[in-house]
Amino acid sequence: MAKGKDVRIKVILECNSCVRNGINKESPGISRYITQKNRHNTPSRLELRKFCPYCYKHTIHEEIKK
């Protein structure tokens, strides 16, 4: 049986302040988290406050494309 579009999808959250400081995207100095979201309940991009070990504080992490 073929699967349709999954309702729950995996998303990657990336720290905003690390990106704004001009760190290269491929460097290990950007905090990233992997989580899931429900596509029907939250169709827009996800934003959560998470701890960034490189900034040493809680910052806003936004959903990025895979």
From TrEMBL:
Pfam families: Ribosomal_L33 (PF00471). NCBIfam families: PRK00504.1 (NF001764), PRK00595.1 (NF001860), rpmG_bact (TIGR01023). GO terms for biological process: translation. Belongs to the bacterial ribosomal protein bL33 family. The keyword Metal-binding does not apply. This is Large ribosomal subunit protein bL33c. The keyword Oxidoreductase does not apply. One of its GO terms (cellular component) is chloroplast. HAMAP family: Ribosomal_bL33. One of its GO terms (molecular function) is structural constituent of ribosome. It is found in: Plastid, Chloroplast. Its main location: plastid.
